Amino acid sequence: MKAITVEPKKPGTAKYMDIPEPDSNEGSVLVQAVAVGVCGTDVEIVEGKYGWAPPGQKHLVLGHESLGRVTDPGSVGGFKKGDLVVGIVRRPDPVPCPNCAVGEWDMCRNGLYTERGIKEIHGFMSEYWRIEPEYAVKVDPSLGILGVLLEPATVVTKALEQIAVIGRRSFWEPQNILVTGAGPIGLLAALFAKIYGLDVHVLDMAETGIKPDLVRSLGATYHTGSIMNLGFRPDAVIECTGVGLVIAEAIQQIGANGIVCLTGIGHGGKAISSAAIADVATMAVLNNNVIVGSVNANKRHWYKAAQYLSRADRSWLRRLITRIERPENFAKALQRGPDDIKVIIQFSEA
Ligand code: BGC
Predict the structure, then answer these.
(1) CATH of the domain at 222
(2) Which protein residue's CA is at the shortest distance from atom 6 of ligand 1?
(3) Residues 328 and 219 in one domain
(4) Domain for residue 144, yes or no?
């Protein structure tokens, strides 16, 4: 069968090649790939900056934002032939650390977790893949191809849960939330925060086009420019850009008792002096602020995200997928155009 593979840490090695059919020890459920979303992590892996092949192997099959159709459900797990499923990305570390031991692999303590398509386990960019039934999540069949948005939706669900849990440390009734970055994570965060009933504000660089349209059609407010000019101090921020300046402004502008949740993975930018760090800390102390990082998602988040996604307006979700590429054109899928939100690679009909 065909798969999109890469030799991790070697830029320019991604290719669409023949690999053996998935082995039954990779899971009892056999799935035909429908589509796989592409994200910044895939680009980093292809650029040789991130990613690990399975032990003893040269290639890693890419892809962690999956959607597939069950072709052989196996004898356990309650799946039926034809079910639309998405594969959970992370597996607990083998020690296991206390968090992995209780199913919180997203909070792994020792870094020995593995991740499909990223860290030591093959991903989902192959015509067929196998999965353990306990790591396959059924999606509402009426979502069709939109089920491919479930993985980014789980990352958002965890971030919102982190904010809600931290907020419980005192009396706190957040009225508004600022989302920085109107990419797939930011827009799904705006959608879910609306479902929570918050006054949602989204800030991005794009002055016109699909991003402001999508935000406004949710009934949220769209901003460009500096967070310092918003005209209010947000109760919570979900930071989805990974850009140093945006992060610094979010931390300076957060309201008293407010929470800044960082989800973006960025690199570089200006170094901050230790004196400036002390100023940031003083502000956080005087305002009881929390700055929290959030990565990945556990089964609870996958379950909740699947519910939220199934409640969302299908035509709005469809607009998030701005481009669909064939597997042989994977290189084009990895290049993000100015109007791209989510690009997916489609392997078969939904
Ligand atoms: C994925 C997460 C993963 C993280 C770090 C993200 O792109 O969505 O599931 O934990 O990368 O590898």
Answers:
(1) 3.40.50.720
(2) 41
(3) no
(4) no
Nearest atom in ligand 1 to 152's CA: 8
Q: Which atom of ligand 1 is nearest to the CA of 41?
A: 7
Scored b (16 or more CB within 10 A) or e, 318-345 reads ebbbebebebeebeebbebeeebbbbbb
pLDDT tens readout for residues 262-292: 999 998 888 888 888 999 999 999 999 999 9
Task: Look up the CATH number of the domain holding residue 123.
Answer: 3.90.180.10
List of residues 6+ apart from 68 with CB closer than 8 A: 31, 32, 33, 34, 84, 85, 86, 87, 124, 129
pLDDT value of position 272? 82
Q: Same domain for 203 and 100?
A: no
> Do 101 and 32 fall within a single domain?
yes
Q: Looking at the structure, do residues 30 and 120 belong to the same domain, yes or no?
A: yes
Q: Whose CA is nearest to atom 3 of ligand 1?
A: 296
149 alpha carbon to ligand 1 midpoint, in Å?
14
Which of 115, 125, 157, 294, when mutated, tests ligand 1's pocket best, judged by the most ligand atoms within 8 Å of its CB? 115
Give, using CA atoms, the residue closest to atom 8 of ligand 1.
296
Relative to beta strand 321-325, strand 290-293 is unpaired
Q: Which residues pair with 136 in a beta bridge?
A: 87
- Kindly report, residue by residue over 81-130, the tens digit of the pLDDT: 999 999 999 999 999 999 999 999 999 999 999 999 999 999 999 999 99
Question: Are 162 and 277 in a shared domain?
Answer: yes
Q: Tell the residue nearest (CA) to atom 4 of ligand 1.
A: 296
Which residue segment(s) compose the domain that 239 sits in? 154-293
Are residue 251 and residue 334 in the same domain, yes or no? no
Kindly list the distances between the CA atom of residue 246 and the CA atoms of 2, 157, 204, 227, in Å, as whole numbers in the listed order: 41, 22, 10, 7
Do 124 and 158 fall within a single domain? Answer: no
> pLDDT over 70 for what percent of the chain?
100
269 domain residue, yes or no: yes
pLDDT for 263: 98
In contact, 117 and 35? CB cutoff 8 Å: no
Give per-residue pLDDT as tens, 20-69.
Answer: 999 999 999 999 999 999 999 999 999 999 999 999 999 999 999 999 99
Q: Give, as one character, the DSSP assignment of residue 139.
A: -
Compute, in angstroms, the gap from residue 215 CA to the centroid of ligand 1: 25
97 lines ligand 1 (CB under 6 A): no
